From TrEMBL:
Keywords: Disulfide bond. The lineage of its organism: Eukaryota, Viridiplantae, Chlorophyta, core chlorophytes, Trebouxiophyceae. SUPFAM superfamilies: Thioredoxin-like. InterPro entries: Thioredoxin-like_sf, Thioredoxin_CS, Thioredoxin_domain. Residues 52-172 form the Thioredoxin domain. It comes from Prototheca wickerhamii. This is Thioredoxin domain-containing protein. The keyword Isomerase does not apply. Coiled coil: none annotated. Pfam families: Thioredoxin.
Amino acid sequence: MLRAAFQTGSRAGLGPQLGRLRACPWQSIALRNKSDSCDECVERSGLGGLDIQSTERSKAAVLELTSDEEVDMALRGLGPTGVAIVDFSASWCPPCKLIAPIYEKLALDYPDIAFYKIDIDGENVRQTVADNDVSAVPTFVSFRGGKPVGQFSGADRTALQLMVDALSSAAA
């Protein structure tokens, strides 16, 4: 099913087996007060006011790729004009956790762009990490027709929005 979905460029029907994103990206960030909720933590981080959708819906919007082969299939599945953004991140990276809800929200808002996530510590993605010159996390790489066209590192909400806007206009 995964191969067929990537070959057709469809993300529909892949289900939660590929949505390996945490239910709450804030869980591993130390809360200042044991009574703090995730909502309070998000509010303090300056990311409050985002209309973050339910986790199940977010899982379908951002696909986690766990091998070089999956990455290759996903990028080839874009065809000559398809566009995608890959978020290279790590589970131990606080800035990655801060930008994750924004990335997930953008994935929901821009269905014409494929959104992928790769954990750089995965044993089966080392070649992909090296090929994309990832030396810091998070690193975002944009693709058009399977070829990289842009890249930046850091949890920069403005830079991420600019990358999405550029791809969105190219996809239209």
